[in-house]
Specification:
mainly beta; 9 strands; about 10% helix; about 55% strand
């Protein structure tokens, strides 16, 4: 599992959560992995960005919780499925398992704001 440092931000007015891997810019492809959750992948098929529109509704949590900067995201993928998990203050906020219809190659990433 590769570990990377996460820079996260939450826009309360637009209810948008953004998690970006520190030191990575841009993305080559953007995949909707679940209702309102988008995953940006660079040209090397490495995750660079997580974007969540209407985050408080998608995660069914308060906007105050989303403002917390202690965030950890796990992304595991093989040829069959993609697994996405998100924790805020060690509380599991989201866990998604979906079919890898995106063609993302096998990868295992932990993106942590405290890394």
């Amino acid at each position: 599992m590769e570990k990377q440092r996460l820079i996260s931000s939450y826009d309360e007015v637009n209810d948008t959560f953004v998690g970006k891997i520190d030191g990575r810019n841009g993305y080559c492809a953007d995949y909707s992995i679940s209702e309102g959750i988008f995953l940006g992948i660079d040209k090397n098929n490495i995750p660079t960005l997580v974007l969540v529109d209407n985050a408080s509704e998608v995660f069914d949590i308060s906007k105050q919780v989303l403002e917390n900067s202690n965030v950890k995201i796990g992304i595991d993928c093989d040829s069959i499925c993609l697994c996405f998990t998100m924790f805020i203050e060690n509380l599991k906020i989201c866990s998604i398992r979906c079919r890898n219809k995106f063609g993302i190659p096998e990868l295992s990433f932990e993106i942590d704001s405290n890394y």
